[in-house]
Amino acid sequence: MRNKNDYNTQGSESVEDNYTLSWQNDGEVKFLQLKNGISLRYLEIGTGRPLILLHTLRTQLDYFQGLVPLLKNYFHIYAIDLPGHGRSSLVQGAVYDEPYFRQSIAAFIKELDLKNVVLAGESIGAVLALTVTAEMPDRVEHVYAMNPYDYGEKFGGGIRRSKYGYFIGLFQIFKSYTLEIRSILKLIISSGFVHAEKLPSHLLSEFNRTGERPGYRNMEYLLFRDWRSWLNAVSLYERISVPVTLVYDECDWSLPEEREDRKNRLGITRMFIIPGAGHFSALEEPMQIARILIEGSTQ
């Protein structure tokens, strides 16, 4: 019998998109069909220089619900559901490793013919902002990498360092059959906060709802399975020739020596450290991130 998680689910407009419009109803939710078979959902909003926002693993574009309203008067924003995440399509047979995500975001930029782009991402989104830039510096003007997810020692990567990260080990055993009920999801995500109360309950419910889509659990397993691809991505950092702003939360899962290594690889003389925050700064300290982006855009 075929596992229900193996079926394709193509992205399409649905009542669930109302969640995004509930916090930003003057934007437009769209889908872009790429040649590799992926349909990417994205929110387009604002005026100014093009800014692409790339979220963390296991979240979606709504991860930036606290940040977008602060930036929409300064940037023309494209907040994307990464491949397989949120309401973007799930493609049977896809390998959800870093190169696959990178190629998809690069294709998105080319398809919309975006130029002079500001790329900003958190966690795996930060890694993608860096690696996409390494491959297409002619289209990217500045990169903001927040808490890049490019470290780890065990299956799943750096999240295993968090308080409840051991739950990720279940994917190594049960693979796409792993159960991920809302209470467990809350423990895992909240362990990336210093102030867990800053994780909105309604947003967590949305993450849980999208995670129940057929095929989602298999995508999640494959992402964790290929965790080393995010570590290997570090080798591309030295190819980046455009300005990079590196941001770490004080209590991010990365180690001091890892942060210093990334700083050196990128040739950065200065990086920002956000005090009293964990791995999810766009949710925990959106005003701090907005300030860094806005100030950087005016220099």
Summarize this structure briefly.
This protein has 12 helices and 8 strands. The protein is α/β, with parallel strands linked by helices.
- In spatial order, strands of the major sheet run 1-2-4-3-5-6-7-8
Main pleated sheet:
8 strands, mixed
Helix percentage range: 25-40%
SSE string, helices as H and strands as E: HEEEHEHEHEHHHHHEHEHH
Low-confidence stretches are: 1-13
C-alpha end-to-end distance: 59 Å
Number of domains: 1
Any descriptors?
single chain; 299 residues; alpha/beta; Rossmann fold; 8-stranded mixed β-sheet; 12 helices; 8 strands; 34% helix; 16% strand; globular; disordered N terminus
Structural description of this entry:
With 299 residues, the chain is of the alpha/beta class. It has one domain: Alpha/Beta hydrolase fold, catalytic domain (Rossmann fold, 3-Layer(aba) Sandwich), CATH 3.40.50. The chain is 34% helix and 16% strand. It is built from twelve helices and eight strands. It has an eight-stranded mixed sheet. A hairpin with a 5-residue loop joins strand 1 (28-33) and strand 2 (39-45). It is globular and about 50 Å long. The chain starts with 17 loop residues before the first helix and ends with a helix. Mean pLDDT is 93; it is low at 1-13.
